[in-house]
Amino acid sequence: MPPILSIRNLSKSFMQNGVKVKVLNNIAFDVEEHEFICILGQSGCGKSTLLRIIAGLEKSSSGEVLFKGTPIEGADPTRATMIFQTFALFPWLTVRENIELGMEILGIHKIKRHALASHYLKLCELEKFETSYPSELSGGMKQRVGIARALAVEPEMLLMDEPFSSLDALTAQTLREDVLEIWRDTSIATNTFLMITHLIQEAVFMADRVIVLSKRPAKVIGDIPIDIPRPRSDYERDPSFFEICDRIKMLISLN
User: How many CA atoms lie within 13 A of 153 on its CB side?
Assistant: First the structure.
């Protein structure tokens, strides 16, 4: 069986003021089914561009992205959905309506749509807020709605673009742990998670492997397995956790 995701010699350039600017430089790595992968790099190195190409929202300049051995051509929410750092909720829709919207666009029958929304409302601890509007929610609750909406279409991969960066430290840590619980839940259809971050400790806390990118134009400078037992709730007391963090920090500082 091929990996669920294969990135092959991927490069991307943009035109800025008539000048060609290279953002991604010959990126290559695989993702196996049920892995939790973090892509780590400094702000502005091209991480979000890479994720958008994986999602099928942008095209690469060269190279390819394969999903189960087949080239990705355009977005497909049954293959992968994205969670954004800015929540991206529709303010005129209730929490339930936001969650059901993607399913409605896909033509899922109203009865099934309602049942799936109820399931993910419960999973993401949103049952008491289903009739609320985004303006009535905290940042953490808004991101829970984004997670529920992304999972409700039951994609094979969940893509997350710095999903906790807009949250306070305590809320962010709670949501990290909740996302890991969802990933470990074998009753959920989505079991492969790919997350962008610029925080080393966040990546080491969450990931099975950390793909480390250099500064722009980004290239892979590390593919580091995180061989620390889960759950990692007491990572502050684990010397091996900080050894890996220091290794990654050194890798980034030299590139």
Answer: 26
Q: Which of 130, 172, 176 is nearest to 152 (CA)?
A: 130
% of the chain surpassing 70 pLDDT: 100
Domain layout of the chain by residue ranges: 18-79+155-254, 89-154
Per-residue CA distances from 219 to 9, 47, 161 (Å): 10, 10, 18
Grouping H, G, I as helix, E, B as strand and the rest as coil, residue 168 is coil
Q: Which residues contact 102 (CB under 8 A, 6 or more apart)?
A: 77, 81, 149, 150, 152, 153
Note if the pTM is more than 0.85. Answer: yes
38 bridge partner residues: 195, 210
Q: Which class in CATH covers the domain with range 18-79+155-254?
A: alpha beta
For the record, the structure tokens of 173 come out as: 């840590």
